[in-house]
Amino acid sequence: MLAELPDMGVDQTKAAIDRAYVAQARWAALTARDRSDTLWRWHQLILDHTDDLAAILTAEMGKPLPEAVSEVSHAAAYLQWYAEEANRIYGETISAPSTDRRMLVIKQPIGVVGTITPWNFPASMVARKISPALAAGCAIVLKPAEQTPLVAGAMFALAAEAGFPDGVVNLIYASEGAAVGRELCTNPKVRKISFTGSTEVGRLLMRQCSDQVKKVSLELGGNAPFIVFDDADVDAAVDGAIQAKFRNAGQTCVSANRLYVQSGVHDEFAEKFAARVRSLSVGDGFKPGVAIGPLIDTHALLKIEAHIADAIQKGGAICCGGSRAGPGGTFFEPTVLTGITSEMLLAQEETFGPLAPIIRFEDPDQVVREANDTIYGLAAYFYASNLKRVWHVAEALEYGMIGINTGRMSSEAAPFGGMKQSGIGREGSRHGLEEYLEMKYLCMGGL
């Protein structure tokens, strides 16, 4: 056992919302510079405690310590970005149709925001969700994933030290999140919901918010294709696939889920990729050299095993891996499968684990159609050198984020989000701030 925490429910959530509702007006009334300064102080405290936060993160969800350090640094980067953006909330003037009036647009904070964060990036998701809301002048009620509450608690302790006024940031621990989520969605004092998680839960939250026409931001499931064309730099594509597939043991919403490789480079790519995968060490995230930590729970283990079994039964072959690792726990060998077809489960569903299925293709236009043949549209990757092909494929892929000749594209300066059933809205960048602002048109007559 790492820690004991209070198990909160609807009553505590209502109380937190009430505190946030009162505090939000005072927070919004501060100058943008005041809000910016508080975010800057929080950013610096996160950096000062990077090692401690990373250790907590690895202890509670298992990712290798270097990845945890990188995640905490990424969280701090979001706080820095929105500390700067807090001073850049601009309105506009509009040319009026007559000389006796003036037309203006101002932007104001939407109000209290309910946020629900996932377990796979428990530090960076907290920062990415709430820093733009705080910069805009909103107050927050956050429920972290029940699997990983400790990092959020530590970050909120640093937020209090940074000087956020009482009631502006509120944390709810809950082992059963459904009732808390329902209260956040149905309480009229909450004006917006921001959620990262499965598409199934996202649909439920949308339904619960619909009676109040409540604004939502949703970052949901993915089924990312990773396409390697004949004209690609194969070694670079292998490097990118390792990054895009095996970071956090494949437990990322932008993880490469389907690796399409054109026939001309298929065998070379598969051989080099499998060799790299065999070198990835599985084990305790605190041990030096470990690249793959545990899966989050037994359900994740059973899902990856079911996907492998289905693929083998339908003609797929194990190139490397394929089994649980170690004498116990939820460790699984990084696995590469070949001979994959679109009828297999792992080509249709998000595996969310260290499983890389390689699909051979011939026709460049057909592979784009297959890549788009999913309800999801979060992230996609492809490797090619022909400029005409790069533009054609980038414009044809139905995804909110495209990595071109790179396996890693997340940045606080870039808009993060998807199309189709992968979500609504964007996080990060200047666009992320707009998600927490209401636009108000003022028409002034009699001038």
TrEMBL record:
InterPro entries: Ald_DH/histidinol_DH (IPR016161), Ald_DH_C (IPR016163), Ald_DH_CS_GLU (IPR029510), Ald_DH_N (IPR016162), Aldehyde_DH_dom (IPR015590), Aldehyde_DH_Superfamily (IPR050740), Succ_semiAld_DH (IPR010102). Its EC number is 1.2.1.16, 1.2.1.20, 1.2.1.79. It is an enzyme of class 1 (oxidoreductase). It holds the Pfam family Aldedh. The keyword Oxidoreductase applies. It comes from the Bacteria. Keywords: Oxidoreductase. Residues 2-441 form the Aldehyde dehydrogenase domain. PROSITE patterns: ALDEHYDE_DEHYDR_GLU. GO terms for molecular function: glutarate-semialdehyde dehydrogenase (NADP+) activity; succinate-semialdehyde dehydrogenase (NADP+) activity. The active site is at E219. CDD domains: ALDH_F5_SSADH_GabD (cd07103). Belongs to the aldehyde dehydrogenase family. This is Succinate-semialdehyde dehydrogenase/glutarate-semialdehyde dehydrogenase. It comes from Mesorhizobium shonense.
